[in-house]
Amino acid sequence: MSKYIINGGKKLSGEITVNSSKNATVAILIGSLLNRGITILKNVPQIEEVNRIIEILESIGFNILRDGRKLTLQPPGKIEIGKIDIEAAKKTRSIILAIGALCGQLQNFKIPQAGGCKLGSRTVKPHLFALEKFGVEIKTKKDEYDVSCKKLKASEVVLYETGDTVTENALLAAAQVPGKSVIKMASANYMVQDLCYFLEELGVKIKWTGAATLEVEGVKEINQDVIYEISEDPIDAMLFISTALTTNSDITIKRCPIDFLELELLKLEKMGLKYEIGEKYKSKNEKTNLVDLEIKGSKLVALEDKIHAMPFPGINQDNLPFFVPIATQAKGETLIHDWTYENRAIYYSEINRLGAKITLMDPHRVEIEGPTELKGTEMVCPPALRPAAIILVAMLGAEGKSILRNVYPIHRGYEKLEERLQSVGAEIRLEE
């Protein structure tokens, strides 16, 4: 039950560097199940979500060597899926990707029901509909998925919805089938692209043939010794953009994956954000475009139209919550529509305890009146990563002392966040 103690309302300054992507890392870690060779991953974030995936892989026979931000994964001679760490699996929704990853190697297996953030009924039917096209039969039981696959087959799949994780699951299945598979309505979001880059290192041929169509030439047996470096995280960058604006501070945010932040920055620019973008350069994997962003203290005005998430290249659904603390400092009324989850917007109104004026219109929409002067208080993290993170951002902008208890949800996605915030002058400390 660790907690953050914050003395907020302070202007911040200095430079902060974006970390590697949580969502890309967990997908690639599970993608390593395809490889019979040695997988070396660099720039791996040291966060609780990654720890849970490592525990799962170790429990089924993987030998994993940790060396700081580098992981070396050696697969077992035989995957012992019956020994899977059920408690670790229940704490991450990403475990559902193991179905696509294992269906080419095991004819029958069981996977625990997915966990992770408590954001309502996040249906798994799109995963089931996609994987059945490859010859996978999945029975959903109370606490597990019962999976049967006699032989994978190449297929043309139309995804039931354009989602990141369902696209990854279909990719992992298609990567193990010789011949051409086509995935339509595919997400091109940052974590999907990173998984594609990793699979290409394993010998899988992947081509985007349209805005939302993937062609995949799979490989029957993958046995490659590979080294891959994880790309930077746009959601990590957005937390610091939100922090800078909520505290009205000048902060330079380095190594921002700009292709996945452009619309967010445009919306903020129309709200009055003052910023400068440096020249583009490549991530260490030579794939992702990065820039350094200089965020400047700005007087913000609410947008006339609503702010809502959409599949890439729209506003990222994990970036949308960070507009909430920003909107508390913008003159006028901001409408935020979080249509993806029926419960997440409810958490946004928790910031009212800091003095915000947030009206919950329905389970998906909030109206925020600003600017408001936020005041410190004591709160408990909700059981969801991004809603917990935006409460922390609001506390950094709130005058006086705040205490945020049970910060495990934040540790799922952010590495040494208190130390990084301290580096730009935030008065925050972690107590166990």
Please characterize this protein's 3D structure.
With 432 residues, the protein is α+β, with helices and mostly antiparallel strands. The protein folds into two domains: 3-19 and 232-431, Enolpyruvate transferase domain (UDP-n-acetylglucosamine1-carboxyvinyl-transferase, Chain); 22-229, Enolpyruvate transferase domain (UDP-n-acetylglucosamine1-carboxyvinyl-transferase, Chain), CATH 3.65.10.10. It has 14 helices and 25 strands. The protein has helices at 22-31, 48-59, 86-90, 97-102, 125-132, 164-174, 190-201, 234-246, 262-270, 323-327, 344-348, 385-397, 408-411, 417-422, and strands at residues 3-8, 13-17, 39-42, 63-67, 70-74, 108-112, 137-140, 144-148, 156-158, 180-184, 205-210, 213-217, 226-229, 250-257, 274-277, 281-282, 289-296, 300-301, 307-308, 330-337, 357-362, 365-370, 378-380, 400-405, 427-431. The strands form six sheets. Strands 2, 14, 15, 16 and 17 form a five-stranded mixed sheet that branches. Strands 18, 19, 20, 21 and 22 form a five-stranded mixed sheet that branches. Strand 21 and strand 22 (365-370) form a beta hairpin. The longest helix has 13 residues, at 234-246. The termini are close together. The relative contact order is 0.16. The model is unreliable at 116-121 (pLDDT under 50).
List the helices and strands and how they pair.
Layout: E1 3-8, E2 13-17, H1 22-31, E3 39-42, H2 48-59, E4 63-67, E5 70-74, H3 86-90, H4 97-102, E6 108-112, H5 125-132, E7 137-140, E8 144-148, E9 156-158, H6 164-174, E10 180-184, H7 190-201, E11 205-210, E12 213-217, E13 226-229, H8 234-246, E14 250-257, H9 262-270, E15 274-277, E16 281-282, E17 289-296, E18 300-301, E19 307-308, H10 323-327, E20 330-337, H11 344-348, E21 357-362, E22 365-370, E23 378-380, H12 385-397, E24 400-405, H13 408-411, H14 417-422, E25 427-431
